[in-house]
Amino acid sequence: MSGEIWVSYTSISDFLRCPRAYFLKNLYRDPKTGHKIQLMTPALALGQAVHEVLDRVSEMKVEERFNTPLPQLFEEVWKDVAGKRGGFLSDEEENAYKNRGRDMLGRVMKHPGPMKNLAIKIRMPKGKIKIPHFMLSGADGIVLCGKIDWLEYLPETKSVHIIDFKTGKMKEDADSLQLPIYHVLVVHCQKRPVTKASYWYLDIQDELTEKELPDLETATAKVLAVALKMKLSRTFEKFTCAHDGCSACRPYEAILQGEAELVSIDEKFDRPRDIYMLKSLEPGSLDGQSELL
Question: Is the model's pLDDT at 290 over the cut of 70?
């Protein structure tokens, strides 16, 4: 495994939780199809659908953002994760998650907050990779990439407010590298200063939760330190689970053992991904809301 190494908040989180899970989710390709593999769960399906709606809104002019009710857009987007494609085991389970999504987007319409203000959309140069990215370390060949949910423009300071939408019920851990990574990424991918960062827990709160903006130099050092460990693991092809099997990697091992059902093939990415579902999952095994990069 040589060449540039691309890292993101999701892949870094995967690696810190379990190197084996990181390998199976980000690097492994099915020898029969050549595709990456992904496990779909109801929580992930919900997060994808809500984020897709809000991403569409981010492309609209301020005065047009709520011309179409967001729950109506949600109905259209939900078709891509309906039934087994969303990892749902029953109509009852699907309806419960779908109703949560409707409620979240209804909340946004009633309390639009930053979404009624100007927003910034990072546009990358023409090329195959469209998501924001930059060379974190040229000497080590490490590229940091990621998609930011929302960048509010603050006209009074001509600066940027980083906003991340949360569709789960759990609060982000205080030690999370998400905001440090996003701070570094936004500073390097556009010219305006970053002066604010917040989470929006759409399932439980009408207002944003502002967080202290991580120090840029400290954040860069933390991200690079983990990225170098990832590079070392890739160089020596060593991706060992510290527990000889944990809740993060075991569901993916089940795919390799033929214990999962192939429910769809996602062709939105640089190469297709085979999407699987399991009939049961360990609690907390796939709590992530973000798509892999």
Answer: no
Distances (CA, A) of 139 to 67, 129, 248: 48, 21, 32
Strand-strand pairing, 5-7 and 36-39:
unpaired
Q: At what angle do helices 178-189 and 9-17 cross, to 10 degrees?
A: 150
The CA angle 254-262-147, to the nearest 5 degrees, is: 90
Signed CA dihedral, 168, 172, 173, 177: sign only: positive
Q: Which phi and psi angles does 75 have, rounded to 5°? A: -60, -40
- For the chain, give every domain's residue range: 20-114+240-277, 116-235
> What is the pTM assigned to this prediction?
0.90
How long, in residues, is the chain? 293
144-166: burial string, b at 16+ Cβ within 10 Å, e else:
bbbbbbbbbebeeeeebbbbbbb
User: pLDDT tens digit string along 30-63?
Assistant: 999 999 999 999 999 999 999 999 999 999 999 9
How many angstroms separate the CA atoms of 6 and 259, rounded? Answer: 30
Q: How confident is the model at residue 125 (pLDDT cuts 50, 70, 90)?
A: confident
